[in-house]
Amino acid sequence: MARTKAQLSSGARLADYLTVGFLAMQCPVGQVRLALEKSGAQSKRRRGLPREVLVYFVMMMVLYADVAYEDVMRLVVEGLRNLLGEAGLESTVVTKGAISQARGLVGEAPLRQLYEEQVRPHGPPGMPGVMFHGHRVMAIDGSTLTMPDEKANSDFYGHLSGGYGDAAFPVIRFVGMTECGTHTICFAKHGPFEEGELTLAQSVMDHADKSMIVTADRGFCGYEFWQRGLRTGAKLLFRVKSVQSLRRMQTLPDGSYLSEIHSNKNLKQKGQTTVVRVIEYALDGIPDAESSYRLITNWMGEDAPSAVELAALYHRRWTIEESFDELKTHLADRKVILRSKRPDLVKQEFYALLLTHSAIRKLMTEAADRTQQSAVDLSFIHAVRVLQRRIPFVGAIPP
């Protein structure tokens, strides 16, 4: 059942306060305080709202996207009072303007640090969809999020082309790397709309390692980005554009073949080529499928998976689109995804969104593991609803 401002103002249910407890389990107060200290954003005085409260507030406003700031803050204060031991919180009344000012003092850094330290691939190796031939399955892709049409946001982030519908709102562009078996967006980089996905993807790719196989769509299949991926030690599986020339050098027993990619199609000198394995295939009987697909991989040799296995694996990368959809339609479910009206607070809210999404995904993974299911088979919408109703009381959670 959707919450309204009137419902919360007339008296929140105990379950609303308990939601804060779930966030405190996933981002313990001790870790929040450490992140505040490292970023220089810890409270200088114990008067007013502790900065820890502001961190949980930004995460809670993601879950309660259509609820007034003041009501969300009341839920956070009531839910955390036992845990923080702040007697003064009981009588604290905070206005919307004061909340925005306090959020500005906290800044982006603590939430970014919490995200970078707390959110990692976490799918159990035995869970369906998590691993492929001993490697954790990851996907990299980009998307956008809308925000309020304020001048500061518009000047900093820019708009989609056009001026109607979603294009009427400023947008933040981001690239993320998702663990396909859990839908968790483990690494991400954001920037203004005019900053290209391939630019943002550089630092995201750096988080890959030899335990992973990273899949990517054709928009990321450039020589320099491929080289960057190779340096991480990860297995790579990228789709290539139909216009890219790939000369067949050696045909392999499974029908795939070896070829070379070049830093510049007009420059093929030594040191500017890399050998790749090419997999060409078609999807028969699949509606709307393209006539053919081509993938390249650095996974070759006797222990390499077959071309059919790799082709099937590539299409699991679409789970990253489902992860982005969860951010946009299941958590926010409105035309303007982010609520913040200033660029510094947009950045802060971006990491709060990823932290909250990850917390829900961890809950779902734990539930799926207990029942020997795949985490991606569980309903994200149902998990959000369960989260708002059945979380243990926060006072029982250690700091």
UniProtKB/TrEMBL annotation:
A molecular function (GO) term: transposase activity
GO biological process entries: DNA transposition
UniProt keywords, alphabetically: Membrane, Transmembrane, Transmembrane helix
Source organism, top-level taxon: Bacteria
Keyword RNA-binding recorded: no
Transmembrane segment boundaries: 53-69
Domain (Transposase IS4 N-terminal): residue spans on this chain: 20-116
Annotated Transposase IS4-like domain residues: 134-356
InterPro entries on file: RNaseH-like_sf (IPR012337), Transpos_IS4 (IPR047952), Transposase_11 (IPR002559), Transposases_IS4_N (IPR024473)
Protein name: IS4 family transposase
Origin species: Candidatus Propionivibrio dominans
